[in-house]
Known about the structure:
This protein has helices at about 65-70, 100-105, 160-170, 210-215, 220-235, 280-290, 315-325, 360-365, and strands spanning about 5-15, 25-30, 30-35, 45-50, 55, 70, 75, 80-85, 85-90, 90-95, 130, 140-145, 175-180, 185-190, 195-200, 205-210, 235-245, 260-270, 275-280, 295, 345-350, 355-360. The chain is of the alpha+beta class.
Amino acid sequence: MSRKLASIQKIRAIKPIEGADKIEIVQVLNWDCVAQKGTYKVGDFVIYFEIDSLLPDIPAFEFLRGSSWSQKLNKYKIRTHKFRGQISQGLVIPVSQLKEIYQQINPKEDYYPMNYTEGADLTEILGIEKYEPPVSNGPLGEIISHEWYVPKTDEERIQVCAENVLPEYMKSEQGDWYASVKLDGTSCTAGLFEDMFLIGGRNQWYKGPNMYTETVKKYGDLEEKCKKYLEETGKYVVFQGELCGPGIQSNRLGLKEKEWFVFNVFISDTGKMDSYIKCDLLQLLNLCEHFGLQHVPLIPFKAKFDFKATADIDETVENLLKYVDGIKYRTFFDDASPNQIAEGIVFRMNDMSYSFKVISNKFLLKGGE
Length: 369
């Protein structure tokens, strides 16, 4: 699912900030954003830009230059900020400015009436891009031009999907779902497709050699294993995981060398586009064991979050955010810093019917140390 980086939303609530005379909190979905006091009232339609959004350099966004301008990217990067002790996640702009923003982004196009329906996706219309953190990966070698047959990773954050997913978890039992630690690395996908075996990062397939191909090779001849599995079962299999280690995102796991941790497995009867089905938890664990691969760390049963602590969705979101702030990488990786908070947790139903991620606010603000 493509992420709605820019969308039409409603102000759900307005809350004061202690000791602040000019700013207040406005709540959009389950995000808290700091805004100038008195600008909005509950029920107002706004344009909401999520964190990680890259906004174009146009006059309408000039007010962001001091706080969000990236000289390297030549765009405004929306990120988590803290004002008077209050975390602000995202940018809220009055919906009345939509026409002006659109015309500045598309000066050669005629303006047409926009969709003001709550939840309307403006990402593509406004040309908003997602920030991808750079990876110190060295030369990547030759790129292979090939269709992307399996979904790319982009789990929705709980602040966006709480109303849809939390009721399912709140009525479930502890054994119906699992939680895995979100590792601070870069996505790596490898597996067998209709016409070839491919290894790639988040957006490209590579012939290599590079950090993706060489790390996957550490786990044996995966290509040969996949072909043998196809002969034995009639199933094409693709593994998707997080590549972590030295030179990648500050190596917060403290790894001595690059390693690959699987979080998704897809199987297909044909190997064709849109034919791959995501495996459930038991299948994922069995296939990782069969192929000699390691999976992302799972939260032990006794340490799992209690979704039945309250029946209130907003309170559950707050409790989830507090819960992930207490997860340390050192619990799962012996050489990680004792104080290093994990990036977050991914929650999934065992059958993959519902899922979401919760990112630690402490990690977002200071990298979790």
